[in-house]
Model the fold of this input.
Amino acid sequence: MRTYIPKPKDIEHKWWVVDAEGQRLGRLATRVATILRGKHRPIYTPNLDTGDFVVVINADKIGVTGNKLDQKTYFRHSRYPGGSTFTLMRNAIDTKPEWVVHQAIWGMLPHNRLGRKLIKKLKVYSGDSHPHRAQQPEELKLPVM
Done:
């Protein structure tokens, strides 16, 4: 019995659109990361890009549970002395909700060359519209939590 390794020409990348309105951030991120990696397909191979493109709309209407809005912080550093910056989730969602969703999904992907390739297939928008209508994305139904 030999292990099946799909050829790049055999891999067909589909486009999905996910509506984030009323969804919980973590639940949405795990589902989207699974689709980006290709784990929903029978030809999934851990070291190959077998996943699909995902367009997330209504990122500004995402929900979180508990006190995460006031307790979760995002850290970044400018690489200068004293260059630490902490941002509360509430402020991040108000100013750049696409970034919050992007960061949640990026945290669930591998942090290597493959992960950097996969994250480029994620498109996040805060409104209802997106410029990817020409790719004819299918709507991915997720249960509202």
